[in-house]
Write a structure and sequence with these properties.
The structure is a homodimer.
Chain A (H helix, E strand, L loop, with lengths): L3 H15 L3 E5 L5 E4 L2 E2 L6 H7 L7 E5 L4 E5 L5 H7 L5 H7 L4 E3 L3 H11 L4 E2 L6 H11 L10 H12 L3 H24 L6 H14 L9 E3 L19 E6 L11 E6 L6 H20 L6 H18 L7 H6 L27 H4 L28 E4 L2 E3 L2 H9 L9 H4 L7 E3 L2 E6 L2 E4 L8 H10 L2
Parallel strand pairs in A: 1-7, 5-6
Antiparallel strand pairs in A: 1-4, 2-3, 4-5, 8-9, 9-10, 11-14, 12-13, 14-15
Helix pairs in contact in A: 1-7, 8-9, 10-11
């Protein structure tokens, strides 16, 4: 946990933002795998972590703005549970560490909220993403499950606060990046023809776990880099292929990192692979150079797209004017997704609270219709203290190429003939994590090698 | 998956048992970690696996006994999803592998069930353990969430069928045991003073993952073997301590193993550790020798308890007549839990369906009041084809000893004075998996060393 005044200060800021009513925070429980008591590793809800820091299943908390009380609801271990699970720090002790003196049995939450509702007071809550918290809210608030969309003023206050990272949060994220950099170097050293993708995943997971870090999301480790969310990782690595590794660690306090590198299974890139890699790398650098307070991230995204198009024109896969190509979204045949997203206690930070609040504003809402832009999670003006990923890529997706070609789509910008040779190329992505600073941005954590030369050099050294 | 006729045959057997109404099977979805799309590794519901074998999130199935239809409800990937997740075997293809020709979009499940309900037909369902399936059932059946306890005739038919393992299921369980035995040998080789418990867990998890096996439950790897469900694994192993390793793998088809060994961190047991170990080992062998069709497992449990008491008397920790001590539950100061449980597609097989159906019968219900027996998951008469664990142990729990001693509890059987020296001893458990055969039982999978001599010998060889 951070220091006790961290949590007190964060809650004080929040209280000033929302002003009245009751702010309700629901923690997570242990999620069942295949029966109630066989459970996945526990992960506390990130907003609960942010304001209370207590990593224990089965808690709720509230800040009563009208009556100026802050209460954690949860149950101490019974003697039976101590026999089974061992003596542990009590809940009361944990709450003291978060600066909360009032601890009540979980069962009293219903009573407290019913009384508040009866007095005509507003219960503010956040959009539930765990089904058990939907049921709990349904029971607490007597509302249909489908109508539990959250309280906008509460959501906006939390997003405003969590978006600007404190110095100690940046340090945590840098710790996460540090472990992740080591994971990526390990993958670079391990990868060789004949291995299965899954073996790389298992090794980096083991490495992170030994450092006390779970992974911040299910890693994508694949020779099919063009499959953006590839869960199947049974392929054998083959000579001449590229391996894409998108993986990151999470610190004990819950802060995420999210890095991607793409590198040859064998020692060297082929000349074609290096061409595509360098194009992605150029776009990556272009994007990074633009990061600064005030610029809309959507603009950074479009600049990166233009850089990709310039590169693709230079090798004959695209044609025409780069700006015009981007304005027609012709780049989305190769770069179907967004340039990046906010990152913090969640790898897609605050995704549970709603992209319309986190990545966009009501003045500049998301384009939810256009292929490409509809997958851009972050579009708003950047501010000092935002932490985000930059992750351009080029992906040759056979199904998409076939579809576009059959429609002769944007053929003024795409050389479909030449593209035939790249059908089985796969995909390349490069991704790092940045914090926006007053005068630009800073890469978080130690630098992980990212030029084609450096990668080949590292592979040669560790062959 | 098993062969198509496996699933057809299993469903045919079930149809004959329940006879009319609609049998509803809800599959699992991807459980969220900290936001909806950041998810834990998928695990299909075990009963769904048993009758349909399809490992895909977001499915339901039904067997309409009145109209003689078997339908899987689920959605094929959209083009957008193929772009993101890659082309995969279609749902229709997977269903063909389970012998199901009728596949409908998931959204039609509500329609189908409403029509069935309107016709006055019974919808049979199993007790939901996933909150999202509670919500789904609540919406489908228009019943309050708290009243969704399941259909007894359906539960009983499933339990009767899943309790008797087929030959091919035994082969799967033996594969799980085989990987688990290797995990345990790895732990024996790795453990040394200075390591943390968690590092052993990480290494065996990595080992299993490389063989395509998740773990069948969160491993308990601890120098505090007396803590029965120990999640905290940050202790450093020290010279002279015992390490308890309770862990098992699950095969790709979902079958579990569940093994425990307790061994010295350093090369040799102390003489006191060996005494306790040998007592547990005697009880383990006594229990195994009694396994046969027709014997109530509760009786096997009580024989094992008696064996433990005999041993504890021999070293002066208990006194009096062993049988009498057991009848007064005096052994529960040292052995607080049950001797074993059913095992199969779940490590506690079918625990979601209800212990009263799986481990007990209405004629011989569970003793839910008595400390010790209330934790015995299996009490009923054994039958050929049952698969179960045998896992006696001795646990010195300081909190429990203090409580009993302060009450002078059962002091005619307990030497509290002598016990003082064992306060910090920890705990010992030995656990293997057995199938009940016509003439007794058979240990499943390759034998894992279990005598104190063998363990010391193995440690010496791999030092």
């Amino acid at each position: 946990m951070f220091s006790v005044d961290t949590y007190q200060r964060r809650r004080a800021t929040l209280r000033h933002q929302v002003k009245n009513g009751v702010l309700l925070f629901l923690g997570n429980i242990d999620n069942p795998i295949n029966f109630e008591h066989n459970t996945y590793p526990f992960r506390q809800d990130s907003t609960f972590l942010y304001y209370f820091g207590i990593q224990q299943a089965g808690l709720a908390a509230l800040i009563d703005l009208d009556e100026q009380r802050t209460i954690v609801f949860g149950d101490e271990l019974t003697m039976d549970q101590i026999v089974w699970m061992g003596r542990q720090e009590t809940l009361r002790e944990k709450c003291a560490g978060a600066g909360v003196g009032e601890v009540l049995p979980f069962g009293l939450l219903t009573t407290y909220l019913s009384e508040a509702v009866n007095k005509g007071r507003v219960i503010h809550y956040l959009p539930p993403y765990q089904a058990y918290n939907k049921i709990l809210l349904h029971e607490l608030l007597k509302q249909p499950i489908t109508s539990l969309t959250g309280s906008v003023s509460f959501i906006e206050a939390v997003v405003a606060q969590r978006s600007i990272k404190e110095e100690q949060e940046l340090e945590e994220i840098e710790k996460a990046v540090e472990v992740s950099v080591e994971m990526h170097l390990l993958a670079l050293r391990l990868a060789r023809p004949g291995m299965r993708e899954r073996e790389i995943t298992n090794a980096i997971q083991h490495f992170a776990a030994d450092r006390g870090c779970p992974l911040s999301y299910p890693p994508i480790v694949t020779v099919h880099g063009e499959i953006l969310h590839n869960a199947y990782q049974q392929n054998h690595l083959r000579e001449g292929q590229l391996l894409l590794n998108d993986s990151g660690a999470e610190t004990a306090l819950g802060y995420a990192a999210d890095l991607t590198r793409t590198f040859p299974v064998s020692k060297r890139f082929t000349s074609r692979q290096r061409e595509i890699y360098d194009i992605v790398h150029m776009a990556f650098q272009r994007a990074n150079s633009l990061l600064r307070p005030g610029i809309p991230f959507k603009e950074v995204h479009l600049h990166a797209c233009e850089s990709l198009v310039e590169g693709l024109i230079s090798i004959g896969l695209m044609k025409g004017d780069p700006k015009e190509a981007v304005s027609h979204h012709a780049h989305t045949l190769f770069f179907q997704c967004g340039l990046g997203h906010m990152m913090g206690l969640d790898v897609h930070d605050m995704e549970d609270l709603g992209e319309q609040y986190v990545g966009y504003t009501s003045d500049e809402p998301k384009d939810t219709a256009t292929f490409g832009l509809k997958s851009l999670r972050l579009g708003r003006n950047l501010q000092t203290g935002f932490v985000l990923t930059v992750e351009p890529g080029i992906y040759f997706i056979p199904e998409l190429i076939d579809m576009w070609q059959s429609e002769h789509k944007l053929q003024e910008f795409i050389n479909y003939d030449k593209l035939r040779d790249y059908r089985d190329f796969g995909g390349v992505r490069i991704e790092d994590n940045f914090v926006i600073t007053d005068d630009g941005s800073r890469r978080l954590g130690p630098e992980l090698i990212h030029t084609a030369d450096d990668i080949e050099h590292y592979k040669a050294q560790h062959a």
